[in-house]
């Protein structure tokens, strides 16, 4: 067989053989649906050699109303682009919040970011979210329904949101676990006592 004949056979086999297509892997952060709230859109000007460059900065809070929340910042020449960047950044920096059975915080916590200071206190059922500004938005998207919050110092939107996130990360889940276990033990002993009294009677 000549070299030309072998080449033609090879090309025919390639044409007849079915092509194996490689599936493109799509990177997805999560299938969980998150709620996004834009708390601030600001125009930022930067002095450059040619003059002034105008960009937009968006601050977005992302949460699933079930223990997960995050703050995202996005900068771009267009508002929509800045918001989409902030949402992506917020989803990448999500934190888990330990909640009680009454959808509150396990214990009192204090935190600060820059000139902003914040204090979170647990509240009884039916109290609601007593907070203002960006702090309220962060707590609501975290799934907290009963809480008392107080801001100290600066009223900066971004710093207050970051201080709230920092305070939520400092929460100790073991405190609530101990309370839950003690309640379960109490119920168990109450049942035993009731049975013992019924047998005695």
From TrEMBL:
Main location: plastid
Domain S5 DRBM: 34-97
GO term, biological process aspect, one: translation
Keyword Transport assigned: no
Entry GO MF terms: rRNA binding; structural constituent of ribosome
A Pfam family of this chain: Ribosomal_S5
SUPFAM superfamilies found in the cross-reference section: dsRNA-binding domain-like, Ribosomal protein S5 domain 2-like
Keywords, comma-separated and alphabetical: Plastid, Ribonucleoprotein, Ribosomal protein, RNA-binding, rRNA-binding
Superkingdom of source: Eukaryota
InterPro entries found in the cross-reference section: Ribosomal_Su5_D2-typ_SF, Ribosomal_uS5, Ribosomal_uS5_bac-type, Ribosomal_uS5_C, Ribosomal_uS5_N, Ribsml_uS5_D2-typ_fold_subgr
GO cellular component, one term: plastid
Subcellular location: Plastid
Family the entry assigns: Belongs to the universal ribosomal protein uS5 family.
Quaternary assembly: Part of the 30S ribosomal subunit. Contacts protein S4.
Function: With S4 and S12 plays an important role in translational accuracy.
Protein's name in the database: Small ribosomal subunit protein uS5c
Species per Swiss-Prot/TrEMBL record: Synura petersenii
Lineage: Eukaryota, Sar, Stramenopiles, Ochrophyta, Synurophyceae
Gene transcribed to yield this protein: rps5
């Amino acid at each position: 067989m000549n070299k030309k004949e072998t080449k033609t056979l090879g090309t025919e086999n390639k044409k007849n053989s079915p092509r194996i297509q490689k599936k493109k892997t799509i990177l997805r952060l999560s299938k969980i649906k998150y709620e996004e709230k834009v708390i601030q859109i600001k125009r930022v000007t930067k002095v450059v050699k040619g003059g002034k460059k105008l960009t937009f900065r968006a601050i977005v809070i992302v949460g699933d109303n079930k223990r997960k929340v995050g703050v995202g910042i996005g900068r771009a020449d267009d508002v929509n682009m800045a918001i989409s960047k902030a949402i992506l950044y917020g989803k990448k920096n999500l934190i888990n919040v330990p909640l009680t059975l009454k959808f509150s915080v396990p214990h009192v916590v204090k935190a600060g970011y820059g000139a902003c200071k914040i204090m979170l206190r647990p509240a009884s059922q039916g109290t609601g979210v007593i907070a203002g500004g960006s702090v309220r938005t962060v707590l609501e998207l975290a799934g907290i329904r009963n809480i008392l919050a107080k801001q100290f110092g600066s009223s900066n939107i971004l710093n207050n949101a970051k201080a709230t996130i920092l305070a939520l990360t400092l929460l100790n889940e073991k405190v609530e676990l101990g309370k839950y276990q003690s309640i379960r033990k109490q119920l168990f002993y109450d049942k035993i006592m009731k049975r013992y009294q019924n047998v005695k009677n």
